[in-house]
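re: ur question from yesterday

yeah so i grabbed the chain u mentioned. its 335 aa long if i counted rite. heres the sequnce exactly as i have it in my notes:
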Amino acid sequence: MGEHRPTRRSVLRTVGGISTAMALAGGGVVASASGAAAAPKAPTADDGFGLRIVDRNESDPRMWYYRFATDAVEWDPGVNVLLPDGYHTSGRTYPVLYLFHGGGTDQDFITFDRLGIRAWTEGKPLIVVMPDGGHAGWYSNPVNSFTGPRNWETFHINQLLPWVEANFRAYAEYDGRAVSGFSMGGFGALKYAAKYYGHFASVSAHSGPASLRRDSGLVVHWANATSAALDLGGGTVYGAPFWDETRVSADNPVERIESYRNKRVFLVAGTSPDPVNWFDTVNETQVLAGQREFRARLGDVGIPHEWYEEPGGHFVREHLFRRDLDGIIARLRPA
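ran it thru and got these structure tokens back, copy pasting raw so excuse formatting
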């Protein structure tokens, strides 16, 4: 794909953090709990997946909100489940998009609600699940934590995914699931799609890093620095001063190229610095370089992928997100 100039932008800017490292973790939208909705049969408090509902709001016809107690994550993570129009009366089973937010103290599971996900999905036959991923959880089980369990990967893959499929009319199969995200969440989407090959038929990264080891492992250093400062009380995702090399390789998209075969792959990155926000510039420079490396490797082995480079920095581009949604629906099993 060539460059496509944006016509309409929903800007999600990175807010200053502890260091340059914190920039890549995410953007900036202040969040608070919002409502979320589900099937005629309300989800149960405990379905044997290690989750216990401690707060819920099902008053909104489309957006249902839950907060869980789980041994995987010490502080109770929240989840928004956005249902398609007509869900309660259609009787249909729907494909599901798992949508991940970026990092920083100002992002959580309602980030995409603030950006406009309700309007973007209006009339589309798709369930969208938007879970917490930590301030700098990096969609991982950390090597160590000094603030209690922060096992986001366990929560998302082993607990939340089966809970969703047990409680909503959602396809519990490869062709019924997609994963996407922004920034840190885009990395999480790429990681999960490769590491759990049979789970997701479509993967999208909106300004998400795709190469952990390039530039002397800059993204790994950033993940360690941000997680240590914001979530783990000095612990790290990948280990410091010495990395868990096996874990880095298992999570690194550019080292898992064959795991993207037979999937829909959608990538977005910005090409120009932000004259106002220096953190955005640092973020997107590294994202762009990593995505180009990733795309080159996909091309070398003949794996199709759709990609866009556009002027601007580190933010969600609404028109490309809407295009991505249409592609996700076209790829997945229809409702």
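noticed a couple things. Residues 1-24, 27-40 have pLDDT under 50 and may be disordered. also The radius of gyration is 18 Å.
anyway ttyl
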